[in-house]
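Researcher: Structure prediction, please.
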Amino acid sequence: MTIKLSDLGGGGGGGSLIGDIKPLNVAETDGLFVQDNKSWLRTGVVSTDLSEYPDAKKGAGLYTGTNFSVGSQETSPTGITWDGTHLWVVGSRNAAYKYTAAGTYTGTSFSVSGQGTNSTGITWDGTHFWVVLDGSNAVYKYTSAGVYTGTSFSVAGQETSPTGITWDGTHLWVVGNVSGTVFKYTPTGTYTGTSFSALGQDTAAQGITWSGTHFWVVGATTDKVYEYTPTGTYTGTSFSVGSQDAIPRDITSDGTNFLVVGDNSNAVYKYTGANSFVGVATASTEYSVPTYVRIK
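Model: Predicted structure follows.
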């Protein structure tokens, strides 16, 4: 066999590190090349055997092939949330529609039109729903049965085009399309003064979810989802959703997978969650020979 580069262990190029990406002209099986106790996985191939490669960077967002339409209920979906057992989708019809985990519409919905227009995001805090309305630049609180509680708060002082909302267990976070920024609020609607920018990754931030450890923000310019630490630092991890929908609007986590709702196809798409595989999901075409990433 011919090794394209000489630094796989020995030779004049020195050693390699886990995470290094290199072009290699080698014979391998199922995308995996092993030499001198070093494992290299061809880009475009991933492994879910996380215990075998504990030191490799973990990825997220492989499309599972599962999706379902919401078009019969909402022709311009903009927000989605998971309440622990069901999914809820909001959009231009200013109502929240309830679906099973498998994507079957339950026949249950509740209207938010009495509070305003252009619902763009929804989240569940374990007891109540919170819906953000772009028409009034405000967030409204509803019971689990969809009854408006009379509680609301304005975000206009921070954002004039709010597009998404999430709950992190103690606070609400609202993302805006004009500022490209995520803002933190108390449950009573007081702005905490804390925020972080998503503009470095996408100029059209749309939706947001909290996975339990990180924030994930949908960008409509790049059609990607980006991961941020609890303090708002971009981790370098992202995944594309553009092959499924060119107008992604919002994202939620069911604890295992991510679900992204798209306005172009009026559908919800399921992706693997955080730390679900190792390797590089998209094959590199930079070189004339296959490109590999070292995973062990």
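Model: Residues 1-14 have pLDDT under 50 and may be disordered.
Researcher: Thanks, that helps.
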